[in-house]
Design brief:
Strand content: under 5%
Largest sheet: none
Distance between the termini: 78 Å
Mean pLDDT: 77
Order of helices and strands: HHHHH
Shape: elongated
Structural class: mainly alpha
Radius of gyration: 34 Å
Number of strands: 0
């Protein structure tokens, strides 16, 4: 039967390569007896934060409002305000004939100004 053949029957098969003692001794000597594993402390994932957090003229007002309203509701209001401001910028760009690239630049500038003033604290 063809299925009854073993790997040792082939020249250089798995069974024949480890059957001889000298190959096993060479293999055993090539493996180090102790392996050093260095454990580096894992670094926490960096959080995306505002570099100007807590700075800016409006930061104290933003922080107090967030504490009063609650973080979840505050973030909803902030999102609506940002969306509304982006719509105003878009309408302004349409009225003066600015292209999409210029509009995107104005939105980015508005975000940077908001960070500096403390609106994103």
């Amino acid at each position: 039967m063809a299925n009854s053949m073993t790997s040792a029957a082939f020249k250089g098969g798995v069974g024949s390569s480890f059957a001889s003692g000298e190959n096993y001794v060479m293999l055993a000597k090539s493996i180090p007896s102790r392996t050093q594993v260095s454990f580096r402390p894992t670094r926490a994932q960096p959080m995306m934060k505002n570099v100007n957090e807590g700075k800016g003229i409006f930061a104290p007002l933003v922080v107090v409002t967030r504490d009063i309203v609650g973080k979840k509701r505050f973030n909803q209001l902030r999102g609506k305000a940002i969306a509304l401001h982006s719509q105003v910028i878009t309408e302004f760009c349409k009225s003066i004939g600015a292209n999409a690239k210029q509009r995107q630049g104005l939105i980015r500038l508005a975000k940077k100004n908001g960070e500096k003033l403390g609106f994103l604290a």
